[in-house]
Amino acid sequence: MPPSEAQKKATAKWQKEKVEEIKFRVPKGKKEIIQAFAQKHGESVNGLLYRLVEEAMQAEDFRLD
């Protein structure tokens, strides 16, 4: 069953308040490969990229505080 209009509105409100977006560009043909890799590991592309960035920052103990 598709989401109701109220659910769509609530989701949009939550996203506006809680998340930011970063655009990630890749060479043609790489998008499909990245999607397949993420799926193979049971992740969304967003989840995969977020995890990899977090791991890289933790490896360097990078913080802005």
TrEMBL record:
GO terms for biological process: regulation of DNA-templated transcription. GO terms for molecular function: DNA binding. Residues 23-60 form the Arc-like DNA binding domain. SUPFAM superfamilies: Ribbon-helix-helix. It comes from the Bacteria. It holds the Pfam family Arc. The keyword Transferase does not apply. Keywords: DNA-binding. This is Arc family DNA-binding protein. It comes from Flintibacter faecis.
